[in-house]
Every structure is written in structure tokens, then in C-alpha cells.
Design brief:
The chain has helices at about 5-20, 25-45, 55-75, 80, 100-120, 125-145, 150-160, 160-170, 175-200, 200-205, 210-215, 220-235, 240, 245-270, 275-305. The chain is an all-alpha fold. The protein starts with a helix and ends in a 5-residue tail after the last helix.
Length: about 300
Amino acid sequence: MIEPLALLRRHTASVLHDYAELMKLRVTTLIVMTAWCGYYFGAQKAGVSSVSWGLLHALLGIALVSSGTAALNEVMEYKVDAKMRRTAQRPLPAGRMSLLHATTAGVLATVGGSVYLAVFTNPLTGLLTFLTSVVYLAAYTPLKRIHPICTFVGAFPGAMPGVLGWTAARGRLEWSTLILFAILFVWQFPHFFSIAWLYREDYASGGIRMLPVVEEDGRSTAHRIVAYSLILIPLSILPSVFGMAGKIYMVGALILGIALLYFGARLAFLKLPINSPRSKMLARHVLQATVVYLPLLFALMMGNSARP
């Protein structure tokens, strides 16, 4: 006989796991990390400590809005998720959570997080964070089932976390925020194109019309991965050019950029069908490279920041 305490632990673990899936914990963690980088440089610009209650308020509020937006995204796409193997076991399509429950959690987290940011950081950050959520849900999410331009549109809200961290520290938009925005904006293309390449058949089953799904041979996708990886190299050294980071960061950024370009070029020069196991493997390598690239780049940027 299973003890009541053991049953309670299992139930609690199951509920927490479902919430982690509903609110895309891994994506939210990456968003929070990027916002932290923005806050760090914003606080440095202001001449105040980056380790403060302000940082805690900023990251908590941004995490709430990110989690809520992810939940509402899954509410909007639960029928699509049910058609794809990689998402069919999420809480909503699997029937472990009701639409009302997920919608309530998503709205509370999104609105509550935005209000929290407006009160405990500044109104600008609260407003920008809420608008970021709106664009993601109202523009990017429905466009995924209409046209490959969804990746370009989705890159705008996707590039906002660093900006939100900065405004949480500074209370205003400044030119330096554009550098963080531009790096994140461009990075998303090799990242999401490689995901769509890897799960092409799954996305097609769900009616997701990203570029690797709608084109037959993948050539255009591979060439764009290379092009955006190339653009990322000069963009990534701008923090050193504009005095945000030092020479160690510049060298590291160049190495990381060349490595990412290498993985993209391997995929671009492959002369095999887009569905072949070899092309899938190389697409996975591109995805893994992008996942390693971004945290390392921001860690280097913060670790070798040019202090005033």
C-alpha cells in the first residue's frame, strides 16, 4: 500500500512538471538570463550595483510575464500541439490540465507580472513587457500557421528581454539597448530555422508554416542560417566597440561567432535531402551550437564588462 505522503509527493511532482511544461521553464530561464544581462549593463550605466532588490523585482516580473505568455501560447495552440509528436504530451493536449485552468494561470501571470514590473521597477518596463507579450500572442502565434514570415515577426518580441532588463535598471530606452536587441534578434534565425529543420515533418503535421517546412530542399533555409550567422559576428563585437565590454570579450565573441558559422556552413554545403538522417544530425548540431552560443556570449560580456 502506498502511503498518503508518497502519493502527495507524486501528485505535487506531477503538477509542478505540468506547470513547467505549460510555462516553458527552459525558455523562460533563457529569457531571464538575457534580461539579467540587460539589467547588469543598465545598472552599470547608472553607476549603481547590479545586485539589488531592483534586479530581483525585474527578473521575477519578466519571468512571470514570460511564463504567462507561454501558457497562453499553449492554450492557443493546443489543437496544433496534439498533432505533433514532440508536443502531444503537453498538459493541454494530453488532457492533464483544463483550458480554463491554463488560461487563468496564463492571464494572471502575464497581467500580474506586467503590473508588478510597473510598480516595483518602472511603468516603462511594465508597459514594454506587456506589449512584448501581446505582439507574441497576437502576431507571431497566428502567423505560424499562415506564412514563413512568422520567424521575422517573432524575432521582435524574442529580442526584447535584454531591453527589458536595461529599462528596469535605467527607466528609459537608450542606444546601448539596441546592441543587445540586435544580437538577440539575429541569433534567433539560425536557432529557430534549425529547430524547424529538425522537426520539419512534425511541424508540417501541425500546419506550422516555417521556412524549412514549406520549401522542398532546404537550400534557402541553410543559406539564411549562414547569412544570419555571418551578420552575428560583427554585431557581437559591438559591445567592445562601444565600450560595454573589453578585448577578452571581443576575442571570445569572434571565436563563438566563427564556431556558429562553421556549423551553419556544414549544413549549407550538404548535398542531401532535407529529410535525410545526415541533414537532421547537422541541423541538430546547429541548434546545439546556438544554445551554447548565447549564454556563453552574455557570460563573457558581463564577465569582461568595461566598468566606468
